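Same chain as my last thread, 102 residues:
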Amino acid sequence: MSYGYITFVFLTGAFVIGITALDPDEGANGQVLYYLNTSNNYFSINETTGVITTRQTLTSDIASEFSLLVTAADMVLTPLFMMRNSVYKLVKKNDHSVQNNI
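reply #2:
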């Protein structure tokens, strides 16, 4: 399992992460497709590129943490597949450093 952080406000269609899996086979047998195994309305994945984007604006009002389970599978008749679970925490983007005026 891997962990990551994404900014507090993530707009609709924003890039979250790109997943890459390689298969040494040639042709269609070497083509890898990607799927999100977690059913939600917050993220989508491009099945050919593995790029995960947001489906809607994310804020801490929705959730402070998201878990994504991604499957990468090749195109053979009995596909080989790999699954990866990642947890992302929403963190506030700090544009200004905190100042102590005591």
